[in-house]
Each structure stands twice: as structure tokens, then as C-alpha cells.
Amino acid sequence: MKERLIELYNREKDVIRGSSSPLVNRLRQHAFTRFRDKGFPGTNLESWRFTDLTPLLNTEFEINLANRFGNIDTEKLFTCDVYDLDTFSITILNGWFVHKYAPLSKLSDGTIIGSLAKAMEVYPELLDQYIGRAAKPDNYEMAALNTAFFQDGLFIYVPEGVKVNKPIQLINIVDSPNPVFLQPRHILIAGKGSEITLVHCDHSLTHNVSFTNTVMEVFAEEDARVDHYKIQNKGRNSALVTTTFIRQEKNSKVTTNIVTLNGGFTRNTIDNEISDKGCVSDHYGLYLVDSNQHVDNQINIDHASPGSLSNQLYKGILDDKAKAVFSGKVLVRRHSQQTEAHQNNNNILLTDDAKVNTQPHLEIYADDVKCSHGATVGQLDPEAMFYIRSRGLCERSARQLMMIAFASEVVDKIEIEALRKRIHSMVEKRLKGELSICDQCVLHCNSKEPTTFNIDLSKL
Amino acid sequence: MLSIRNLSVSIGGKPIIKKLSLEVREGEVHAIMGPNGSGKSTLASVIAGRDRFDVDEGEIEYMGQNLFKMPAEMRAREGIFLGFQYPVEIPGVSMANFMRTAINEKRKYLGLDPLSGAEFLKLMEEKKKIVDIQSKLTKRSVNEGFSGGEKKKNEIFQMALLEPRLAILDETDSGLDIDALKVVANGVNKLRRKDNATVVITHYQRLLDYIIPDFVHVLFDGKIIKSGGKELAYELEEKGYEWVKKEAASNQ
Q1: Which chain A residue has its CA at the smallest distance from B78's CA?
Q2: Were both Cys, which of A117, A216, A430, B232 would link to A435 (CB 3.0–4.6 Å)?
Q3: Is the pTM of this model over 0.90?
Q4: Looking at the complex, does the CB of residue B194 fall below 8 Å from at least one CB of chain A?
């Protein structure tokens, strides 16, 4: 795969560069060199020790460097059925921005939402101020690969002081008969004092093989507030690698919440650089995995400035032979006094074959800080089980309640009520084994082959 | 209603209850008093069906049935209720939902139709009055973020909804101020009927000013060392547990 990509880059350099700005193309070239030298990350790297990409790269993937979709009636493609969830909805199909009307919209308040490819054409100066400023291709191999090749994705610019009143919903769909390798790039710029909520849904329409390598750059400028929800709900043959770079300026607040309900292989990395004081950075995650699913969450927070607060809470329930990895790193630099950083990862294993590798890392060089970390891998609290059973509920119901309770600590952090309710019910169904991929999917695709998932509660 | 005969219970090989016998009949209120570590909470848990203890000998018969053959949930459906000393928090599960599920599982077991949402709400409103519970409490997650007093009131509220035949209240008075104590005691008194029974486990005599027991038992070192009427509670308050311990020792 590496050789194919190198050959492709060299052969199609002009197509890849297209109308990107000279700056973007310099970034590409630098990132490409890095990928050419280092290749895909291997398990010899500390951050990839428990997650092996090699078996996923044996497929003859199709890589499309041109948008073949054009105008599409996105409403025919899908309708989001989360009732009461009033959003400004955006669709990315096989890595390309698809739209019914225009590829890029400028709202009356000055907010720009649309295709990154189009934005690079229309607003090159604006883009050059940001693109590549948060991403660190030198530290993240998959981000280097994405930087070399990316063509399209979501672009959002919220001007100073604008509070975007509706959440933006990004629906990322993979629907291809052939195995595809996709590398979308998303940029979110939240200007000074602005507010924005992004609901980011990853879906597959089929169980066909696909590999998505996404990079997102988030810029939260002074006093900005960004809420980023990710709902990952993919087919069992899909691989999803996401790397999100967040850069926070003074007094900004960023919240991420990743709910992974299904997916063959999922790896999420968040790299959060807190570059000024007064920032709040909250990262929540929930993963419910079974069969041979693999989910890996890596959070790296760099307190590069004093007086900020970061918080990580990731929880998971694993069944069958599922495997989860969690690594939470917090770096508090020498001058970053009065930092507060907390981190927690709790797991419930339902079988002896399920496996979790959890690693909290705190690297603290300042002396006036408040930091904590904790990781648990266990089963349900027997005292609580007894409490529920002593009210007349059978063991099975008690377990379900306990698992719902376990998961809801993360779900409750979702601030959009309609979405929170929906995720609650999806989690509940998922834990009762009543959820099929079609049932939970927001798309009405009438797939012929619904998959049922079954967390067998009697195994506990 | 409840006959405990010659019961010995241990945990991890350590004996906690030693050859204990107790008889509770319909309509009675029993108080079990005793110093910390005497086995009061263990006794309550064993009756309710907690399975972390080993029953080494003896038997418990409840309504003519062998209690040890019934799992905890079956005992609950047959009318046993344990008011916990430390009620457990269940985030993400609303009180209302939890209790509706509990009531309907019991009704199903008894061959009755489940309560509809409206019927359940009506029942809940009715029972709220008994414990003077605020309506918002039932919308919140079970015990989550409840104060000590709210948790104990909530136990009595659950008891009111489940209408047990045998209620065991484990240190329901601990950590309560006098007003909360009165509310809790008042709830218990209102729920008292001719055909049900209550076992109140307490460390202090204070609660027994409000819930008047028919019998008082002193539990010490896993054994009931003295039983008597309500006046025993006052005597204990006055003379302390040392007095009963000495008396028991001299009797042996």
C-alpha cells in the first residue's frame, strides 16, 4: 500500500495539487516526504503498540482523486431521523462534499460552511492563515499521509462574536461497491468569542471494505466555544482512523464527545494544544464493542500555558473478542502553573476474551498543579446489583440497568437534548442486543443485509 | 411470618452470625439493637438475599417457604423489602423508571397486569405524600446526588410503593437530623398494617421514640443476648451495652 501511494503521488502530483495554494502544496510535499520515509505507523511505535494497521492495508483500495458526484439530492440519499434535531446538515460522500444547492454557503452572519476544496479556491488567503497550523504531520504518521493527499472535506469559518444558533451536522457516508481509501480533511475555525456545535456522524451504508483516514483541524480562538460530537457507527469491514488537532487560545472552551457504537476498526486521536490561559478542554468518549471489533482512543493534551483545565472521561463495554485501547496523555510544561488536569478510563469486560489496554500518562514539569488519573477494568459493582435485585428486578434486568447507568455518565454530557435522548435510546438498545446497524443508522438505505449485534448479558 | 432458626453465617471463614434464632409474626414491629460490628447489617442482608455470605447452618422460613431457595429478586417479589443503610446510586436510571420496572416485575410474578404509565403516576403521587418527598426527586436518577436524608427518605418511598409484607430497615436513622428522622418514622408508621411486619435495625434508641417496637432484641457478637419489650430500649440508652454484655456473660 505504501508503494502504491508513493507511486500515485509522484504520478498524479498535478491532480493532487490541483488549485491548492502554494502554502498548502508545500505542506503536502513536506508531509509526503515524511510518509515516504516513515510509511504507515507500525506496532514498534509506542502509540501503536496495541493497534496493528498491517492487516487492513492488504486490500487493493480504490483511490479517487476527482469528485465524481457533483450535485446530488442529499435528501434522497438519506434523511436524518433524529426527531427534533434541528441542524444545518452537510454530507460528505466517499470523502467528497456533496450538496443539493451550492458547495459553499456564506450565511448572513458571515459564517462560511461548505466544501474545503471550494474554500481553497474561493478563500485561499483565509485558509492559508490556518491550514496546517494545528496539524502535526511530523508527530502523526496518518496525519502526514492525509496532508499529502487530501482533496476535500468540510470547511467552517465562524467570524468573531458569531454564535451559530443551529448545530452543524456533518454526515460522513461511505457507500461504494469497491474497497475505497478515503482521506477527507476538515477545518473548523471558531473566531474570537464565537460559538459553534458540530455533530459529526460517521456511517457506512454497506458492509463493504473501506478505509477512512480523516484529519480535522479545530481552531478555537480567544473566548470561543466549540462543542464537537462524534457518533461512529460503521460497518464491520470498515476502518476509520481519525486525527483531530485542536488549538485553543485564551479562555476558549472545547468539548469533544465520541460515541463509538459500531465499527470494524476505529482509531481516534485527539491532539489538543492549550496555548493560553483560562482554557477549558473536556474530552468524553464511550465505546460499546463486540465480535472482533477494535477501538482505540488516544488523547494527547499539551498544557503549554498556565491556568487551564482539562478533563478526560472515556468509558467502554466490551463483549466477545472485542479489543479496546485507551491512552490519555497529559503534558504540563514547566511554566504551566495552576493547571488542572483530570483523566479517567473505565471499562467493563463481559467475556474472558475481551481485552483492554489502558494507559494513563501524566508528564508534569510544573509544581503547582492539580492532576489526577485513574483507570479501571472490571465487572459490575455487586453491591449495586444486589440493590437492584432486592427491589424485585431479575439479574438480567439489573445488569442491563447497570450498563445503561455506566454508559450514561458519558451520554449525559451531550448538551443537545434531542441528540442526548437519541443516543441514550441507541445505547440502551445496543446493550439489550436489539440494535441492528440499520436500526441505529440515520440513513434510510434499506440494506438487504442487516446485522444484529448481541451483547450476551448472561456471560457476565 | 419469618422464622430464623439456629442461623450461623460467615464471610470468608469468619463467623458473623452465631446460632441466631428470631420469630417475627404479622403485625409486629421488632427492633434489633447492638453495637457496631455485632452482625446487624449482615443479618439484614442475609434475609434479603445478598449472596456474598456463607450460611453454615440453620434455616430461615418466610411465609412457610425456605428462604435460601429463593434468589434476592424472588424474595422481593414475595414481599421482603430491605431499606439499605447505604443506598446505591444508579446514574442514568430515573427513580420513576426504576420503580415502575420493579412494581411491574412484581405484578408479573403475581400474575397481575402491568401498571400503565398513568396508573403508576397516580400511585406515585399518592405515595409521595407518605414520605413528604419532592416531585423532582422521582425524575432524577436513582439516589444520584441525593443528600443523606433524601436517600433514606427515598428508601421509605420505595417501600411505600412496593408495599412489602416484611420490611427490614437497616440503620435507616443513621445520618438523619431530627426532622428527617420524624419524616422517615412517620412514613414507617403510616405503612404499618395488621398483616405486615417491620424489623428496624438501629444503633441508637432515638428512632424508637418515633417507631414504637413490640419487641427489642440486643444483638452482640452474632447472637441475640437479650430480648424484651420497648422498655428494654430505654434501659439500654441509660445503662449502655456493657450492662447487657455483662448480664449475658454471667448467665453463661
Answers
A1: A392
A2: A430
A3: no
A4: no
